[in-house]
């Protein structure tokens, strides 16, 4: 059973990839640059506040906008353990899984938690425990769970194609 427990950083609906990591930082290949600027359009101090294991919670359509893979990587490299949202943009969802960033789609999460709350996510069952009760969502299919457990699609491929 894979359980993640962390402090919540809460954002609203339609958080797009341009806000997650602004385009002006995309030319850098330095892995330390993107986490320093993650979500700065919504909270200029966010990168200095997030700690390893924290969890981002958002409303509907998280990760909409351009298909930049760097958005998922910026969140992961900033230390977020997972993102829980009402819904995700499809391309962001796949980019996150491919890069080993766990996502949980949980209806009602944006009303069930506040910033700073501690929540617990059971990746195997899709359950989310909050101080106000538990939310159930469909767990990720086993294949996607295996990709996450491998740390992303490239690691999964290497492990299964020796």
What does this 3D model show about the protein?
The protein is an alpha/beta fold. The protein starts with a strand and ends with a helix. Helix 7 (142-150) crosses helix 8. It has helices spanning 17-20, 33-37, 46-49, 70-77, 90-98, 109-112, 142-150, 153-160, and strands at residues 3-10, 55-58, 82-85, 103-105, 118-122, 127-130, 133-135. The chain has a 7-stranded mixed β-sheet with strand order 4-3-2-1-5-6-7. It has one domain (3-160): Aconitase, domain 4 (Alpha-Beta Barrel), CATH 3.20.19.10. The mean pLDDT is 95. It is built from 8 helices and 7 strands; from the N terminus they run βαααβαβαβαβββαα.
Structure keywords:
Aconitase, domain 4, 19% strand, single chain, 162 residues
Query: In what range is the share of β-strand residues?
Result: 15-25%
Main sheet properties: 7 strands, mixed
Global shape = globular
Unreliable residue runs: none
Strand pairing plus helix content: what structural class? Answer: alpha/beta
Average pLDDT score: 95
* Number of H- or I-type helical stretches: 8
* CA(first)-CA(last) distance: 26 Å
Q: Which CATH class is shown?
A: Alpha Beta
Strand order of the largest sheet: 4-3-2-1-5-6-7
Computed over alpha carbons, the radius of gyration is: 15 Å
Number of strand segments: 7
CATH architecture: Alpha-Beta Barrel
Name of the CATH homologous superfamily:
Aconitase, domain 4
| Count of discrete domains | 1
**In sequence order, what are the helices and strands, one letter per element?**
EHHHEHEHEHEEEHH
**Which topology does CATH recognise?**
Aconitase, domain 4
| Fraction in helix | 25-40%
